[in-house]
Amino acid sequence: MQYQKKHATSRYSLVRLTPETGRKHQLRRHMRHVFHHIVGDTSHGDIRHTRFFRTHYDCTRMLLHAQTLALSHPVTGEPLVLTAGLDDQWMSILEEFSWVDSAKA
Q1: Which residue intervals of the chain are DSSP H helices?
Q2: What tens digit of pLDDT does each residue of 41-53 get?
Q3: Considering the entire predicted model, what is its pTM?
Q4: Which of 32, 54, 56, 90 lies in disulfide reach of 86, CB 3.0 to 4.6 Å?
Q5: In whole angstroms, how far apart are CA 100 and each of 9, 37, 90, 93, 94?
Q6: Residues 46-74: pLDDT tens digits?
Q7: How far apart are CA 49 and CA 62, in angstroms?
Q8: DSSP string, 41-67
Q9: d(CA 28, CA 24)
């Protein structure tokens, strides 16, 4: 896979981001700004990598996952923590890149 002229191969990283606010597109814009586009992001990402993942890994979604959301309940004000597991496409990518253990940390 040769997409970037400077490198013989493209490199991918699994990154854990912990935003303190929920501004619209915050993570997507910040990652684009530091040239670490989120795979599958058709607005703020790199289309070459999105196409590569779609073709080679049948990945048809953005690889951005909200694992945990913490907020105050809108009525009671009590702390509310929501968690979500990973879907099959995420698990497939994690296994392909040997990131399964990293995702659990």
Answers
A1: 26-33, 47-57, 88-96, 100-104
A2: 999 989 999 999 9
A3: 0.74
A4: 90
A5: 22, 21, 10, 9, 5
A6: 999 999 999 999 999 999 999 999 999 99
A7: 11
A8: -TTTS-HHHHHHHHHHH---S-S----
A9: 9
